[in-house]
Amino acid sequence: xxxxxxxxxxxxxxxxxxxxxxxxxxxxxxxxxxxxxxxxxxxxxxxxxxxxxxxxxxxxxxxxxxxxxxxxxxxxxxxxxxxxxxxxxxxxxxxxxxxxxxxxxxxxxxxxxxxxxxxxxxxxxxxxxxxxxxxxxxxxxxxxxxxxxxxxxxxxxxx
Length: 159
What we know:
Mean pLDDT: 88
């Protein structure tokens, strides 16, 4: 294989990983549990894992997928704006890092209207494995980004 062929193959792999990553977030936005399930590695031979912000480590396909079913059932609206997306690869493993700028809302207490929308920043790492069926999620780890409130500036340090 020539250098040009290797570059083209690497570019195609990166594009495929980026598309798999985008599909993951789009499935969450639509609340499409069936599609989301199909994006994770099948079977339990390679144990998948997931860390949602503030949650313990979830391991195993069943536990991870149950967490997404729970999130989808309790989230009326969610939208992800991904920034700072980076992809690195080695062999059949790809690592995607990004910032999830999340806008979400639950059901309102008074009936059909949407509840208040909440913004949140999460930094995420998504690990994908190459399979005969394309790139599949092996692990997702999300960590909240703490924002400064300005309170620190108001505190005076005793001398």
